[in-house]
Design brief:
Layout: H1 3-11, H2 18-38, E1 44-51, E2 55-57, H3 79-83, E3 86-92, H4 93-100, E4 113-116, E5 128-131, H5 135-146, E6 150-154, H6 156-164, E7 170-176, E8 184-185, E9 196-205, E10 208-215
């Protein structure tokens, strides 16, 4: 029942003493459900592009295949609205090194970026810091940093570890119309089966398809 329906119940003249009490009880239940919805814990979400054959980079970390389709036409920006819901990004060290080595603007704005690493890290921005520990510990740190907002997890090894630990709530996958044949895998190497539920699918231009899955075992 919607709040509009509740308002109609509240404003309708009562024909018996029981009706106002029943309407108040129903309204109270709706408020409680709304409070629980707003108090839901932050989600851990993956947002990543993959080739048709399941690679996220070439054998030498090449990423040129992501935007090497001349005449592909306009492509919908799915990243900006996704980032608007993110409070912290948890990134693998290899991914961080690749991103910082690109001749491109920093793509994460002022969002805190936590880099899971055991090695010394020289942050490229004051929003970047190193974290260490097992997968449960670094995800917990990212959640505390994100507050009420979601955690974005990036990097093949980190994603697989989080999946195996049952810590990933949602997978946002953009399938690029390219077959690499070899490279850095996205899901190959997970230690167990993972059942996911398709939430949405749509073409976003350039031959690409955006898929959103909910992880059933998180």
């Amino acid at each position: 029942m919607s709040l509009r329906q509740t308002k109609r119940l509240r404003d309708r003249p009562a024909t018996s003493p029981e009706q106002p009490e029943r309407a108040a009880t129903m309204s109270s239940g709706i408020v409680r459900r709304q409070w629980h919805a707003s108090a839901m814990p932050a989600r851990v979400r993956v947002f990543i592009a993959s080739s048709i054959d399941g690679f996220i980079a070439g054998p030498n970390d090449e990423l040129d295949w992501l935007d090497s389709r001349p005449g592909a036409g306009a492509v919908e920006d799915t990243f900006t609205p996704f980032m608007a819901e993110i409070g912290a990004l948890l990134m693998g060290r290899r991914t961080y090194d690749i991103v910082t080595g690109l001749a491109a603007p920093w793509p994460y704005g002022d969002t805190p970026v936590l880099v899971a690493t055991q090695r010394a890290l020289t942050p490229v921005r004051d929003t970047v810091r190193a974290v260490s520990g097992d997968i449960g510990e670094v995800v917990a740190t990212a959640k505390r940093t994100a507050g009420a907002r979601d955690v974005y997890i990036d990097g093949g090894g980190l994603i697989r570890s989080a999946l195996d630990a049952g810590l990933v709530d949602e997978l946002n996958l953009t399938i690029i119309p390219c077959i690499l044949g070899a490279g850095i895998p996205l899901f190959a190497g997970t230690q167990r089966r993972h059942d996911v539920e398709l939430v949405s699918q749509r073409s976003i231009g350039g031959g690409m398809v955006h898929l959103v899955y909910q992880n059933s075992d998180s």
